[in-house]
Amino acid sequence: MQANELGQALLACDAPLGHDPRQMIGRILERDRLRVRFLARATVILWLLAAGGVFLLVWYFLSYVEPKLWAHAREQDTEGMKRLVGHWVMIGNAAAWFIGTLAVIMLTAALTTVWLVFASRRATLRQVNAQLAEISDQLRQIQQAPAKPMGATTASN
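-> structure tokens emitted (157 positions)
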């Protein structure tokens, strides 16, 4: 909810009876909930696509490029060239596994990012609810206390 929307909702409390402020605030809060859900789903989908792209790259390398490199290494005439090409094949293989590991880390990061957002939101709501409960208790105590006359002072002598 943006600040101006909250301000409009609060100003609407003084509006004529045709506009129920509770309904308006409820609609604003519901729209915020839907927006948060949409963003969370979009975040997860985008992170999954990114991780899937990395896995696809690794699969492509291991399935198509590496076998061709090994075949090219076997076809070399000299032993030095076979070792050189074989060395590059091993480097490519290690890089593919490294990229796959990074994809797992990215996926874990995405899930923990969404988890963190929801956890912080939940914590904030709990704090607000606790403070509202405290304020409510204080108001209840004020209402239950006997009213003193305005001009009355306590005698401390």
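The chain has a mean pLDDT of 75.
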